[in-house]
Amino acid sequence: MKKLMVFVLCIFLFTGCGNEKNNDSAPTIEEPITKETTLSLKGEESISLEYGEEYIEPGFVATSKTGEDLSENVTVEGKVKKTSGEYTITYTLKTEDEEVVKIRKVTVNPIEVTENASYVPVLMYHYFYDDTIGEQPSDANHLAKSDFINQLDYLKKNNYYFPTMKELRDYVDGKIKLPPKSIILTMDDGQESNYRIAYPLAVQYEIPITWFIVTSWTDPTSDYMKNLLDSGYLNLESHTHDMHKAGCSGMGHGGYFQCVSKTEGLNDLKTSKDLIKTTTAVAYPFGDYNDLTKEIVKEAGYSLAFTTEWGVVKPGMDPYALPRVRISAGNSLQSFINSI
Fold it and tell me: Is 80 exceeded by the pLDDT of residue 13?
């Protein structure tokens, strides 16, 4: 009788007897939130440093959609030198289905200068040979490795300042001052010994060098070249794209560039500029130049042009006909010091 009464009561109250919970009160199941692959920079995205101040990498955080640490999948490209300039650090996170890129800008402020340099030597090197392993030079354009080491050591110990090409142009125009002991090291052609001998020493002594390369001979976009540029101690400038050849008899050293049409010259230099991308200066092939070549260089968007004429750069000079100091084999360290 009791069981019957309970059954009737349950039906009357519509309570669904026998269930521990009412179905209407069951919890709602939420869909999981899908996370995204993230790459974020620690510290500021724009950093300002004083000249000579060491850049300390703040780092980054990289996580997968499931929260997994992906730091090992991030490549960091770019180098900040202690010399003034604008530098870019690129962080790239690659996964199977996406790529995330972040950029950090680092500015190294110019050195504070009270007394302006009366002149700036721009050194002109060509080729090197390793005398420490018995190599011999083929001509006076080949400098011994040991002599180059002595020169770099002297510059380092005497606290020389190494301005950028932009700084040199501003110095020539009278817009900025440079420290009295300022100097620029340039090398023409981009020959094999520049890579094998000069470049490692420049990195070792933390002294930037500028290569004037012929872009039809040397590909500035190659992975090998990118790795060299990442050191921060190599700058590429133009030695034209394909004008380093003879063909203009009776003028200068016979360099072809001084006899080309304006259209051909512009196309060549613009090709070189597009390949190097950051170039601001040209070294005339064979040192040959005239009013037309200067006009072509300027119209192609370059700020400076160098000859092979001996001399030091001073304020007020023609920025498209700047002299250099040739460094030849056989000169003593004292001769080097006297020339700068």
Answer: no
